[in-house]
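Continuing the batch. This is chain 6 of the set; chains 1 through 5 are on the previous pages. Same settings as before, nothing changed between runs. Recording input and output for traceability.
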Amino acid sequence: MGLKKGAFSFSRFGVSSPLPGNFADLFDEKIKSFAFRDFFPVNEEKALGWTGLQNILDREFSYAAHTLGDYRAFSLRIDRKTVPSALLRLRFLEAERGMLAERETKKLYKEEKEALREGIRQDLLKQTSPIPSLLDVCWSLTTGKIYFFSHAENVLQDFQDFFRETFEIDIALHVPWLNALEQSKDDAEEFLSKQPGREFLTWLWFKSEERNGRIALEGEEEIGLALVRRLILESGVGDYAESVVCQGQHASLLEGKEALRQWKKIREARLCLEMDTMEWEFTFKADLFQFQSMKLPAPTEEYDEKSALEEEGRLLERIFLLEKAIGTMDRLFASFLALRLSEGWPAEAARMEIWMNR
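Output for chain 6:
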């Protein structure tokens, strides 16, 4: 699901440079210029364009439909044509057999095969109907934060490229520990080599059990945090990676600690976060600090979906709740990072080792 309702998965981007003062006016002009069009490019496998968030058929963004206070909320529509590999292979073999019979020969050159296969692929593309997908975007013009509701690597790249083409602005995937590069070179390289996202998630597990699920933030604020139902640990990289998937409320955590003792690190975990009598649940993907299948707390009031004003209020409340969870995770990571790069880390690591072997 996207921003409008249900649970959602998203990645974060950040604008790399300040926006011009008149950008709010330029935004409307630029997004309309790159709105989705029905025309599908000849011999292309995909077509992209922006559409309205609340009305996917709105390509004119009537009445500034993309504006939610400081936020700009809209969708990226990507239509893709896909040729099944089995069909392409079958058609190629048929065409190859026909060509060999016509020429009365037993073999085609490599270049001829490649040209034949590409010609067949293009013909099949022309006969194939595109499949649309809609991916929500929420952009705070003041903070420069952008939430894009997808994790797929190729889709993230399409979004980044099309965003740059539309708004003439560079954006980058937001990964908090890259700030560690601002530290001394030796400390940064050593820290980044430890897979900081996975190390952070292991530390979170430790902190959640250290005081029976309560974690202190700066000041006197406390939150509740627990690992629930699913845990994935991994060691090695690429073809040499070995994963352990643990599921269940209690036995899985014992299995997870055993995997930690075998030098595996937590790649992702399902977390339950409690603040101010509200509860969030989401899967945290450590490698890129991504959030998957996030369930928000129940809304504070009932909204009339037929009322445009109330619909706007509902969306703003969902954005507020989303950012509250993200902000808390960012604060937790900032606490971890400060400790990880301080002289107090060896003592914390020793406590973690005792916990791990308990």
